Amino acid sequence: MEKEKVERVNSGIPGLDELIEGGFVKNSVNLIAGASGTCKTMFGCQFLWNGLQKGEKGVYVTLEQSAEDIMKDMLTFGWDFSSYIKKGRCKICEVTPGDVDELKTFIFSEVKRLDAELVIHRFVLDSLSLAAMGWKEKPEEIFKLRTKVFGLLKSLKTLNLTSLVIAEIPSGEQSLGRLGFEEFIVDSVILLKVLPVDIPMRTLQIVKMRRTKHNMQVHPFEVTSKGIFITKMKKKEYL
Ligand SMILES: Nc1ncnc2c1ncn2[C@@H]1O[C@H](COP(=O)(O)OP(=O)(O)O)[C@@H](O)[C@H]1O
Ligand SMILES: [Mg+2]
Question: pTM above 0.70?
């Protein structure tokens, strides 16, 4: 049987695509996990910005920082999202949902308002962990919550989105996301860290990625004037 060609969506992170056979699997849900300050928000914005440069549309839903703060922060890299927002190609919206269903309804309406035809586009949720944290699920209701979160992530695929879902790992905790099960229900997991060596080093590791040949190495990265950059690549090829 002929091998099926997997369609890919570029990550926008120089050096990352060649580690994952060209990019994220189209229509997949990808978890970007890390402690606070490990560049998760930057990763999400760089992915979105890359899509906008290619003429794709994108939606960023934030439950953490305000949309205004994110846009101001990203201007330091020259990523002016406001011009794309004005053109109706992009949305950065903040929401404080009461539960998973409310969040799902919000995402659906924002995505469809931006793009009723649902052509290929990118979506970032920042973050899933904080959302779940405020919902005070009792331990006996964790199964119900898991089913709901699974439903939410699955529905992103029906919207024809390639999604990044950000998860905050509290320091000292073993599981990836705060719920402890996000990693099982997504198509890929990328782990961001700051290693506490003499000169602290930022690293990225592809922990899992379905339908993709990848290694398990820890890849150092830097934050340059143009965002995240996997250090292994020669800098002049990019700058
Ligand atoms: N313009 C910039 N230049 C260099 N480093 C930056 C810049 N903006 C943010 N950073 C670094 O990135 C870190 C935060 O990135 P962020 O994506 O907000 O992390 P997270 O979402 O994981 O908490 C900051 O603490 C800082 O070290
Ligand atoms: Mg963040």
Answer: yes
